[in-house]
Amino acid sequence: MSEHLDAFRQTAALFAKKEIEPLLGREGRDGDLSLLPGILQKARETGLTATADPAGAGWEYGVWGRACRADGPAASLAVLQEIARTCAGAAACIHLAGLAAFFSDDGAPPAAVAFFEPAWIVDWPSLRRPPADACRLTPAADGAFRIAGVKHFVHAAPEFAGLLIFAAASDGWRLAFAPKTAAGVELADPGPRLGLAAIEMAHVTLRDCRIEASAVRAGEPAAFLRRHLLGLSAIAVGNAAGALRAALAYAAERYQGGEQLDALPAVRRLLGDSGSRVAAAAGFLDSVAQNDRDDPPSLARACAAKLRITTDCAQAVTDCLQVLGGYGYMEDYRLEKRLRDAIMLKLMAVKPDALRELCAAAETEGAR
Predict the structure, then answer these.
(1) What does pTM read for this prediction?
(2) Which of 90, 142, 207, 298 sits a CA distance of 20 to 30 A from 339?
């Protein structure tokens, strides 16, 4: 398996260098995002991104391709880390597109996964059965369904065609697909955000939207959440590793007070702290990936990984930025972009306090 992982990493690294680095350039705070749709199309053609089409290049081995059901998430996580070394936003787009494809029916168009209700604090019971404020899916007279409700902070790769909506039916969770142009689907811009500018984000209101019966099937929120948290953790590791690489290169070529920067004790401590955090985060993620199953303990480990890894990696990026001093806050060096992305990764999907509650609940259940 290690040989396969090395091959995946090398493919992702070459793609990042050739296709994604030009996006960053020196244009704007987050690079030239007009290049992103073309880059993501090339990622699909290369097979880096999973697709819901069995004839697509990434169907089996792209990020969150069907092979991860049998082989585990290690390959997808390795690709995400490598892409995030160059750009966390591009890695997040590949992650979100692949995640949606994994939960889509064969041949379905690109989608966004609508998961969280406005006031839903994720807990173990709500993952097993829908909470009271979940979107409701009800049978219609013509054999189709109607769906109503609100989803907040729906994330997606650019140019998504529809929504995969976790909704409550009479017998539990269901997953429904709705084109984003369908009658009754309203998308609202949540407004400016700090980082990860490459991804799309929207609040979704569903007003009695009609859903064909063929577009509704059983849904597993826990399985989606587990993979989502692991993917974001991998992107955080890659983003921090990229920051460390940039800080090491800067310190090796700059001088202060007649000494090379990386020889100064204060700088060495910053680099050492950052490197130790990145190494520990990568090791933790690898351990969680090797023990990934469709069971509650695996979800608990994914929650712990997201909490610990994104927190430590954000601190690692902060330390790297400090190596550059005031230059670290300049857009030219892209360290401030990495810090903004690291903070967004901490907050994305499930916020730290909610993750702490989930981890505490898992520990309590495990002690019984």
Answers:
(1) 0.95
(2) 298
